[in-house]
Amino acid sequence: MPAFKTLDHLTDIAGKRVLVRVDLNVPVADGKVTDKTRIERVAPTILELSKKGAKVILLAHFGRPKGAPVADMSLSLITSSVEEVLGHTVHFASEAIGTPAADAVAAMKNGDILLLENTRFHKGEETNDAAFVTELAKNGDIYVNDAFSAAHRAHASTEGLARHLPAYAGRTMQAELEALEKGLGAPARPVVAIVGGAKVSSKIDLLMNLVKKVDALVIGGGMANTFLAARGTNVGKSLCEHDLAETAKQIMIEAATAGCAIVLPEDGVIAREFKANAENEVVDINAIPEDAMVLDVGPKSVEAIKGWISRAETLVWNGPLGAFEIAPFDKATVAAAQHAAECTKSGKLVSVAGGGDTVAALNHAGVADDFTYISTAGGAFLEWMEGKVLPGVAILHEHK
Ligand code: AMP
After folding, report:
1. Same domain, 215 and 322
2. How far apart are the CA of 320 and the centre of ligand 1, in A?
3. Which positions are annotated as binding substrate (predicted)?
4. Do residues 262 and 288 share a domain?
5. 118 in a labelled binding site
6. 319 CB under 6 A from ligand 1?
């Protein structure tokens, strides 16, 4: 049983006004939504509530308008895309509060869906202002949060409302929390984490938290160079944060204390230019030439990483193992991702991935549908992996 209420608890809601916080922060180019994934993710919650006869009132932010209306950040621009994905009429109110919202809500019939204008057109949204929360709450009897990706922020529509109204997790929020619980909350052991990407500096909290929770931490990507250099390996011209040597050592000490194995590359694919199809070769990690840089982990390392994945019951993954955007330096990421996908498909592995470039890297590897769960939640996913409390989630737990 989850430690929060879900839509399963909302049975008798015909005619009730349900304020649903969703993530509709979709990319738009030339007035067209270029990726509807986020709308697709929240569709099940919206349609379930509508079918149950609720008046479904959608709250969302769009871009960063900084507390005042900005024409090209109006949610009216994406209303037709939301209608298309839902296969259902979506009404629009020109303000999230005040007369426009109240009138639009008053006109709703059971099962109707209404999208309120960008909550961030009001300063009170990001400051979680009590008066703004009260205004929002006037239009609802019940609050549902389906925007995990915004749950790391204590804003009026992500946290404040849950203090005023009975609060429930939507289906996407529920799926995300259940997957994260399987990944790091109460995972089947052994748990292996793969962390890659460019720099240690952006992932210190993440690494510090993981070494306390997982049985092995595989470090790849540019950040592996910082760890190798801290250990005394010459990394040539590789991307490396030499000033973080002490931090890297501290992470290795914490890992040793917690009994977490740190897995660093044994070999690397080196090049002299950071560009696609640059001349490259595989070298032992202790033989990196002065004038070369490591752009991917080498084949021996890939075999070792695959071995760790095979022995794991649970895998959490953030960040590519190499510069995956430029061939052939995507090889290690693709091979490891495909192996994780195979282990997952055969029922031996729970695999949870997310954050920033990870989704793009796993899409590139063609395994997006084969992992147990891939979070598109960026910042919220990372903060959760860092062991931080997400205000939008914590408040739902208070309603259990
Ligand atoms: P992050 O956003 O921190 O997960 O970093 C992702 C970026 O790290 C991608 O753009 C990769 O190209 C880059 N990256 C991964 N490995 C390396 C490497 N060995 N050298 C330079 N950049 C890398």
Report:
1. yes
2. 6
3. 23-25, 38, 61-64, 120, 153
4. yes
5. no
6. yes
Pocket test of ligand 1: the residue of 329, 330, 362 to mutate, having most ligand atoms within 8 Å of its CB, is: 329
Smallest CA separation from ligand 1 atom 1, residue: 197
Distances from the Cα of 106 to the Cα of 22, 57, 135, 138, angstroms: 21, 11, 15, 11
For ligand 1, whether the C-beta of 325 sits within 6 Å is yes
Q: Is 201 in the pocket of ligand 1 (CB under 6 A)?
A: no
- Whether residues 36 and 81 share a domain: the answer is yes
Closest Cα to atom 20 of ligand 1: 222
198 lines ligand 1 (CB under 6 A): yes
Q: Write down the pTM of the prediction.
A: 0.91
* One domain for residues 211 and 351: yes
The CB of 72 under 6 Å from ligand 1? The reply is no
Domain region containing 121: 7-172
51 and 145 housed in the same domain: yes
Residue 256 lies in a domain: yes
Residue 182 maps to a domain: no
Task: For residue 227, say whether it is annotated as part of any ligand binding site.
Answer: no
348 is in an annotated binding site: no
**Residue 211 and residue 273: Cα distance in Å, rounded?**
33
Number of domains in the chain: 2
CATH number reported for the structural domain that contains residue 207 in this entry: 3.40.50.1260
For residues 76 and 211, state if they share a domain: no
- CB of 357 closer than 6 angstroms to any ligand 1 atom: yes
pLDDT, tens digit only, all 400 positions of the chain = 468 999 999 999 999 999 999 999 999 998 899 989 899 999 999 999 999 999 999 999 999 999 999 999 999 999 999 999 999 999 999 999 999 999 999 999 999 999 999 999 999 999 999 999 999 999 999 999 999 999 999 999 999 999 999 999 999 999 999 999 888 888 999 999 999 999 999 999 999 999 999 999 999 999 999 999 999 999 999 999 999 999 999 999 999 999 999 999 999 999 999 999 999 999 999 999 999 999 999 999 999 999 999 999 999 999 999 999 999 999 999 999 999 999 999 999 999 999 878 999 999 999 989 999 999 888 999 999 999 999 999 999 998 7
Residues 119 and 168 in one domain: yes
By annotation, the residues acting in catalysis are 38, 199, 356, 379
Domain boundary among 110, 140, 172: 172
Atom nearest to 322 CA in ligand 1: 16
Residue 281 labeled ligand binder? no
